Amino acid sequence: QVQLVESGGGLVQSGGSLRLSCVASGRTFSSYAMGWFRQAPGKEREFVAAISGYGITTYYADSVKGRFTISRDNAKNTVYLRMNSLKPEDTAVYYCSADGRGAWGASQSSYDYAYWGQGTQVTVSS
After folding, report:
1. Cα–Cα dist 62/59, whole Å
2. Which residue from 88, 98, 85 is spatially nearest to 36, judged by alpha carbons?
């Protein structure tokens, strides 16, 4: 069982930056691919970014490519999402997720992630 706790959300103006963090419990963090997903009001949850367990492979949604960066520190059991040049359409609840089969790869499908955090709100004002 893995528990995930996100932090770092908040209110920011358009063009601003935020860094989300997600701390995972457990001692085999490097065997988990980690993903960030988001859900805006009235919309389905969507993929944002993912990183493999050893940090070798990363994936990004087209809508955030070039603006967001996913990274991880396995010594701290933590995954980060650095968000730059934020836009109002980035407003959503952001969820951290873990897939225990992802040491070398990472899925972009929410169905492959068994563990989820409680979410952190990101609001970008225009």
Report:
1. 9
2. 98
